[in-house]
Amino acid sequence: MQETSSSGNAATLDVARRFLGADTTLEILGFGNGLINKTFRVDTPEGSYVLQRINPAVFPRPERIMGNIARLQAAAARHRELAVRLPRLTYLPDGSAYARDADGGIWRLMERIHPSRVLREIENPLQALEVGRTLGRFHRLAALLEADAFEITLPGFHHTPDYLAALDDIVRAGGAGVEEAAPELGFVEQRRDLATALTDAVERGLTAPRVIHGDPKIDNLLFDVHSDRALCLIDLDTVQPGLVHHDIGDSLRSCCNRLGESAGNAPAVTFDLNLCEAIVNAYAQEAGGLLDANEIALLYPAIRLIPFELGIRFLADHLQGDRYFAVTERGQNLRKARIQFALVADIERKQAMIRRVVDCSFNHARRP
Ligand code: GN1
Ligand code: MG
């Protein structure tokens, strides 16, 4: 997470004091690069925290998030051998894990994992290995839990056909921007079938929901400041039942695009096979045993699908006037959509090699 300069307002201060005590000296700063929630850093003489207002327009039942995080934390505590670190929550004096503000918004206060750093891009193979290892560990812990015991925090999240249907509706309604986006809409049109790759697989019983992270992009993995070791996956809002394929696809679409999600120039975007190999290898070493042959066969489709889905989400949001993903200027979500689609195109070019990486990694990991 990177610090920004905006400071907290009176309401933010009030909420922070409810968690930390009315007399605590504290300093509040804007914090992080998240696109959905409002995030602040709160420093007190005793410690440093992350304070977040969960975006109620995105998460219809934000209190459910806190229940899921508590369940995951309890599991991490029961299974210390897996050494999955999660940010600790601070509770209100009445034992509640969240505070409600005058507008009904929900806030939470968490430990700031410090010192730590966020990588702008993966710098070496060891860091890539850490990405795969950390996600694999997280999935091993999550696999010990009943997916049904976890609440849905974000209905329809990673349900690609719904995102495609929403885009279709927007296009059908017409409006400014649709014409300009013709090349991107054409790109989507040519790949319409891809949207159902994972939902169909679930219907056919080829894979099933487990507890997942939901958003394991590179910004959500904290690294040690002195070494290449990963410390902790953060941003647990989307911990809910989903497919491990969603997480693996999301991690790879984020980490293997070295130019990042906002790269200025879509044609230059590529999917880095070496990074993919290191991440998938480490993941398979850690969690390969969780996936059966059908699920392994679904990994390439998932790696192609998740950037496609995110591209559709960015594109739809652009056409709707940037209501969901925060932007600093008009056109940003369209450019981000182009970048995701450029990534999809490169993944398609590298299909045979990606499939080979997946097969070798998982076969190797499963050999006794
Ligand atoms: C959003 O808010 P943030 O930055 O953690 C989004 C993810 C996207 C990501 C793209 C709840 O995550 O699905 O992959 O942006 N989260 C939600 O950067 O929609
Ligand atoms: Mg998030």
Task: Write up what this structure looks like.
- With 368 residues, the protein is of the alpha+beta class.
- The protein has two domains: 3-112, Phosphorylase Kinase, domain 1 (2-Layer Sandwich); 118-366, Aminoglycoside 3'-phosphotransferase, Chain: A, domain 2.
- Helices cover 44% and strands 13% of the residues.
- It has twelve helices and twelve strands.
- Strands 1, 2, 3, 4, 5, 6 and 7 form a seven-stranded antiparallel beta sheet that branches. Strands 8-10-11 form a three-stranded antiparallel beta sheet, covered by helices on one side. Strands 9-12 form a two-stranded antiparallel sheet.
- A hairpin with a 6-residue loop joins strand 10 (221-223) and strand 11.
- Helix 4 (160-173) runs parallel beside helix 10 and helix 7 (244-255) crosses helix 10 (299-319).
- It is globular.
- It binds 2-acetamido-2-deoxy-1-O-phosphono-alpha-D-glucopyranose and magnesium ion (MG).
- 2-acetamido-2-deoxy-1-O-phosphono-alpha-D-glucopyranose is lined by residues 34-36, 58, 154, 215, 217, 235, 238, 261, 310.
Fold blueprint:
Layout: E1 3-7, H1 10-20, E2 27-31, E3 38-43, E4 48-54, H2 62-78, E5 89-90, E6 99-100, E7 106-111, E8 117-118, H3 125-143, H4 160-173, H5 182-189, H6 197-203, E9 210-212, E10 221-223, E11 230-233, E12 240-242, H7 244-255, H8 273-287, H9 293-297, H10 299-319, H11 332-349, H12 351-366
Antiparallel strand pairs: 1-2, 2-3, 3-4, 4-7, 5-7, 6-7, 8-10, 9-12, 10-11
Helix pairs in contact: 3-7, 3-8, 4-10, 7-10, 8-12, 10-11
This protein binds 2-acetamido-2-deoxy-1-O-phosphono-alpha-D-glucopyranose and magnesium ion.
